[in-house]
Design a protein that fits this description.
CATH superfamily: Alpha/Beta hydrolase fold, catalytic domain
Strand order of the largest sheet: 1-2-4-3-5-6-7-8
Helix content: 25-40%
Order of helices and strands: EEEHEHEHEHHHHHEHEHH
Number of domains: 1
Radius of gyration: 17 Å
CATH topology: Rossmann fold
Largest sheet: 8 strands, mixed
Length: 290
């Protein structure tokens, strides 16, 4: 494998590729230190991450982002089935020689990383869950405004503000504009957006009517009730997709669960406060050795 040059930033790091199980996985890597792998949201590609958040993390970690199979610059069959997303993480980690690493997931990506944790806990040092849901039924459901914006063929700044920030807050709206500009600042080697027909078909194939993260046998919930893996949940106080209230009931059920709620924030708190959230994640991993 080519040596990774560590002085790249999120806006100029080149895309690299690994071959595994008959498909090519696209990834980027910046920073130095312990490894942290990040899994994406619905409709996300590598260029959906805010560069300021990634650069903040790169001060403490070797940060790896990637495109799921068949999406962005990766080849293969696209899928939002949780086990398939976890398989992408495993194959990428194996190809890169990552024996033990921290793993983070945003939104839908949080489902895949929780499955990975339950199936490959020995590979992980920490689990970071951003704007996502625990396994099982969700007493507090997705707000209709999410679907009104998330399923549009193209999302503009107004959609992003509703989906990932807090439109009622002037400070959050300003943060949305700043984050949008930072994400657009990468001018070359961008992962192509996911076509509507693709994200709709794989979403329909992976969805269940009773829960955001279906766990009918209680397997994943049972894992988190007994694991010693440190888990950090980061959420906005106005989370329209996976309300943070769904986590509160687990405070005394999951022994290693830490919940951090951001005021006047929505589904993308790491983009509203990239320095604070990257510092929080770094501090969490230092303070909670497994």
């Amino acid at each position: 494998m080519d040596q990774i040059v560590t002085h790249f930033t999120a806006t100029d790091v080149p895309t690299r590729f690994v071959e595994s199980r008959g498909r090519t996985l696209a990834y980027r890597q910046i920073g130095t230190g312990p490894h942290l792998v990040l899994a994406l949201r619905f409709r996300g590609v590598m260029d959906s991450w805010d560069p300021a958040f990634l650069d903040g993390l790169a001060q403490a970690f070797t940060v790896t982002t990637f495109d799921y199979s068949g999406l962005g610059q990766s080849t293969g069959t696209p899928s939002y089935i949780r086990q398939d997303m976890a398989q992408d993480i495993l194959d990428l980690a194996d190809a890169l020689g990552l024996d033990t690493f921290a793993l983070g997931g945003w939104s839908l990506g949080g489902f895949g990383v929780q499955v990975f944790a339950a199936e490959h806990c020995d590979r992980l040092s920490h689990l970071i869950l951003i704007g996502t849901a625990p396994p099982g039924p969700q007493p507090h459901g997705i707000q209709p405004v999410f679907y009104e914006h998330a399923l549009k063929p193209v999302n503009d700044l107004e959609d992003e503000t509703v989906l990932f920030f807090e439109p009622a807050s002037a400070a959050s709206r300003a943060a949305a504009r700043a984050s949008h500009a930072r994400i657009a600042s990468r001018s070359a080697d961008r992962s192509p957006p996911i076509p509507p027909e693709t994200f709709m078909s794989i979403l329909q194939a992976s969805s269940t009517p009773d829960a955001a993260f279906s766990d009918p046998e209680g397997r994943y919930a049972a894992f988190f009730r007994q694991t010693d893996l440190p888990v950090l949940v980061i959420s906005g106080d106005h989370e329209i997709v996976f309300p943070v209230e769904n986590w509160h009931a687990l405070n005394r059920d999951w022994p290693t669960l830490h919940i951090f709620t951001i005021p006047e924030a929505g589904h993308g708190p790491q983009h509203q406060h990239p320095e604070m959230i990257s510092g929080l994640i770094a501090g969490f991993t230092r303070a909670t050795p497994i």
